[in-house]
Amino acid sequence: MGSKADLLQGTLDLLILKVLALQPMHGWGISQRIQQMSSDVLQVQQGSLYPALHRLEQRGWIEAEWGDSDNNRKAKFYRLTATGRGQLEVETSNWDRLSGAVRQILETA
Amino acid sequence: MWKRFLLRVRSLFRRNDVEQELGDELHFHLERQIELNIRAGMPVREARAAALRTFGGVEQVKEECRDARGTEMIETLFRDLRQASRMLRKSPALTAVVVLSLGLGIGGNTAIFTLIDAVMLKALPVQRPGELVLFGDGRSRGFISGITGTWNIFPYPFYESERDHDPSFQGICAFRTDMDRLSVRPEGSNPAAQVAWGRLVSGNYFTVLGVQAQLGRTLRFDDDRPNVTPVAVMSYAYWNRMFNRDPSVVGRVFNIIGVPVTVVGVAPPEFFGESVEAPVADFWLPITLIHRFMPDGESPLEHPDVSWINLIGRLKPGVRIEQAQAGANVAFHQFLMKNAGTSLSAARRKELQQSRIVFTRGESGISYLRFRYSDPLKILMALVGLVLLIACANVANVLLSRSAARGKEISMRLALGASRGRLIRQLLTESLLLAALGALVGVVLASWGVNALVGMVSGSGSSLPLNVRPDAFILSFTVALSLLTGVIFGLVPALQATKLDLASSLKGGMSGSHQGARSRLAKILVVSQLALSLPLLVGAVLFVQTFQKLETQDLGFNHEQVLEVGINPIIAGYRTNQLNSLYRALLERVERVPGVRAASLSLYSPMSGDNWSGSISVEDYTPPVNEYASAQWVTVGPRYCETEGMRLLLGRDIGSPDNESAPRVAVVNESFVHRYLGNQYPIGRRFSMDVPAKRYDIEIVGVVKDFKFNEPRQEFWPVAFLPLLQLTDPNDRMRFAASLDVRTSGNPSSVAAAIRTAVQDVDRNLPITGVTTVKAQLDDALTKERLIAKLSVFFSLLSLVLASLGLYGVMSYAISRRTGEIGIRMAMGAARGDVARMVVRETLLVALIGVSIGVTAAVAGTRLIQGQLFGLAATDPVTISLAAAVMIAVSLAAGYMPARRASRVDPMVALRHE
User: B842 lies in a domain?
Assistant: First the structure.
C-alpha cells in the first residue's frame, strides 16, 4: 500500500461524487471503481470510505437505498442527487484550478 | 433540508435500525473483500484477516459514521438525562428538597410579581393607553365642595369648558367617582329587580378611551345631551352572566333607575372600565342621568361649586403631560375666578390662586388598590425575593454536599477512562434536570398562587377585574435564575471533583484542601440562609401580631350580633317628604321579627369605609386662627346607640320622640367633648353644622365612649350622631339612610332572611343592596393585613424549613467526613456525650453567627415595614428575641440527628473506614 498514493484531504468526496455520477453503486463497488479508474494508483483507505459516504448523505449530495447486488445479496446503493450533481461541478472546477496552479508552480520553478 | 432532518430524526429514534444497517453495509463490504482475496488464492482464514487489515478498525469506522451523521451530541444528552433521572430517583429526599425549594421560590415570585403588575403596572385594555392622563390622582370620591389646594375631583361645568376648549387634548371624558347602585328589571316583565352596578360617564367616554362595542354600539357624544332617550351600554360579563350572551339584549328596554333605558350595546370582554378595582360596572350610563341618583332629583350638573367627577383626557400626539397640565391649570384658574364673582376677599383670592391640578399618567387607569396595596405588595415582593435567595442557597448546598458524597464514584469513573469533559457534562445535566423540574413545579405553583392571591386581595365582595396570568417575563427571570444556580453549583463541584487526586480519593481518604474549602463554602451558605430567614421570621411575627391586635382590638362598641342591611330609598324613588313614614314603618315592622332586640337606621354603617364630615360651630368654642371646628357625622334612627352597642357615658340615646317637630338634638362621643367642650358638663351644650350662621340649634343630649367607626387603624376623633327624623332640608342627601341596623339576640345571620322579608313587606320595590355584619366589614377592612400575615407566616416557615434542612445537610456531611477522626477520639477515650457535644457546639456556632447577622439585618430592615404595623414597633425586642430563639432551637434540632449519629460511631468501624 505504501507505494500507492494516499488521497489528498477532500479529494475523496470529489472522487465519490464523480464515480456515482456514472451510475448508482454500493460502497464496495465505489472503492473498486476508484482503484480501477486510477489504474490502481489510488487506493482508497477502505475504512475511510464509509464515514465519507455517510457525511455526503447527511449533506444531501447523495442518497441511499437498499437493493440487490450482482450476486443477489442485499446491498446499500448510493445515488447522486440533483444538489450532488451541482456540487460535483463546483468541486471539479475547484480541483482544476488547484491542480492547474500546482502544475504552474512546478513548471516555472 | 427536510430530508436531512428526517435522516437525523430517523437516526435518533430508530437507532437500532440505523445501527443494523450500518453493520450490514460494512459486513457486505468485508465479505466482498474476503471473496476477492480467496479468489486471489489466499486461504480462508488469511483472506479474512487481510480484509480486516485493509479495512481498518470496524468499530472505529462505525463510530466515525455515527459522528458523520451528527447525532452523537443528542444521543449523549439522552443518555445523560436517563442517567441523571436514575440518580435523582435514587435520592428522592434530596430531589424533593431541591425541586420544592426552587418551585416555591419561582412560584412565589412569579405570583406576587404578576399581581403587582396587574394592580400597579398593567395598562388599561384601551387604544394607545400611553396617551391618557388623569386630572388629579383619582383618590377623591363623592360630592365635595369647598376644596382648596390640590384638586382631584371636579365640578361638571369645568369639564364642559375643558372638553370644548383645551387644545392639548384629542378629547376629554368625564365619569362619576363612585359606582351607583342600580335596580334592573326588563321592561314589560315583572320579576324581582336585580341589583347591579352602574357607572355614569360622559357621552364621549368610549370614544376618548378608544373602546369599540362588542355588539351594537357604545355611547355617543350626543347621548349625554339633556332630554334625549336614556341609553346604556352593558358589560360583557353582565351580558354573559345574566343573559347568556343573548344578542337580542341589544335594543331591549330595561327599567334601571325608575325610567326606561334602552341598552344600545355590549362592551368588549376585556374592558372593565377605567378603574382597576371591585366592584366592576355592569352598565355604563350617560352622566346626565345623575339626577336620578340624587335626592329629589336635584342635579349637580350646573353647579360650579360641587365637585363630583373625574376627568381623563387623551393627549394630542407630541403634547407632553407637563404642557397639558400647565394649560389646564390656566383654564382652571379662569374658571374658578369667573365663578367666584367680583367681590373677592384677599384671603379667598389667595386660596383660589393656590388651587391647582396635578396630572397623573392614565395608562393604568385609576386604582384605589394601587394606593392601598403598593406598600404591602412591595413588602411581599421583598419577602419572596428573600425566599428565592434562600432556596437557591439551599439548592447550592445540596448540590455541593451531593457532589462531595460522590467523589469516590467520580474518581472511579475517571480511573475507568471517562474523559473529564464527559463527566462534567454528566454532572451538569443532573443539576439542570433538577433545576428544570423545580421550574416546572414553579410554573404550576405560580398559576395557582396568582388566583389565590387575587381571591385574597378581592375580599368578600365582588372580585377584581384582573385578568391575571403568570407574568412571562418574571417567570423566565426566575427560571433562568434557578437554572443558573443549577449550573454554577453543579459545575463548580463537578470541576473540583474531576480534579480529584485519584489515588487518595479512591482510598476514601479526605485529602486535599478543596474538601475543606467546600465545607467552608457550605457553612457560609447555611449561615446566609439563617441570616436571611431571620428577618422573614421577625416580619411574620410582627405581621401576625398586627393582624391579631387589629382584629381583636376593642372598637369601642359591641359589634357582635349586629346585622347591617343595605337599603337604597333613592333608587326606589322616595322623595324626602316620604322618608320619615318609610323609616317608621321599617323599624316598626323589623322590630317585630323574632330574634330582633333593637333596630335602627343610619346613613352608613361602621367599617363600611364611608365617612361624612364637615365644619361645625360650637357654642363658646373659638377655633384657632385659620381653622374650623369639624366633626364626622352620622344621621341615625331612634335607638341607634343601643342597636350598635355604643357605650352611653352620659345622658340618653336618640329616641323616636326626636322627630321633625321636636328640638334638634345630637349624641356625641368623648373626643367631641374633649376637643370642643373642655371640662364643662356636655349635656345641654349646643352646636350647629353651619359655620357662618352659628345658629347653635343642636343640643347635646348624650355622650358615648370613643369608638373606631371608619377603619380599624383610625385615631379617635369627634363624631356626632344626628336624628334622621329631624332633618328638614329637602336637598339634604343625609336624609337617605343606606343602612338598616339590627341587633339580634342570637346569631345575626339566622334572622337575615326574616329581615329581608320584613323589608319587602314594607315596600317590595325597596332594593336591599346587601346584608352583612360589622364583623364581616371589619374582616374586609383587614384583608390587606390578613394577606400579609398569612403569606409572611407561610414564607418564613418555608425559609425556616429550608435553612434547617441546609444546616442538617451540612452537619451530616461534616460528620461523615470526620468519621475517622471521631473514631480516633473515641478510641482515645472520648465519651459518646463528648462527641455529641462537639457536634452540637459546631452547629450552635453556625446558628449563632447566622442569627446575629440576621438580627442586625432585621433591625435595619424592619423599619421599612413600620407603616404596616399596628400597636407595636418594628424593632420590638420581644419579637426579635422570640424569632432568634426559634431559629436557634430549630438549628439545634437540625444538628441533633447528626450529633446522635456521631456519638454512635463504632471506633473500630470508623478506623477501618480510613
Answer: yes
